[in-house]
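ok trying again, last paste got cut off:
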Amino acid sequence: MDSAQKKDLREQYRQMKPAMGVFAVRNIRSNRCFLEASADIPSMFNRIRFQLDMGMHPNRALQQDWKEQGADAFTFETIDRLEYSNDAAKTDYREDLKTLKSLWRDRLAGEGRLSFYP
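nice, full thing came through this time. structure:
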């Protein structure tokens, strides 16, 4: 691979925009969910699954259910995606993600269909 190809690959990587938004790790048996927001949902799915598999997830209730019920009792679901701004200068989406998570938490709690891990 020559330097021009490497440069192109680096630029393609820099331009990648992973899916960001709100997601849930849902226990399908108890209908409890762990709701979170991320600027890179696919990476967070991998991270959380690894933490749970290793017994290192910071949410103790979620970790305990994973240990007792196994991975088959859980789904990883994207709830809503946040689109990237057309403004190239905007690179910080933390507040937008925080607001979106709060809106979804209120909405899902109001529907009464599921409960949340603390």
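cool. The chain is about 45% helix and 20% strand. The chain has a mean pLDDT of 92.
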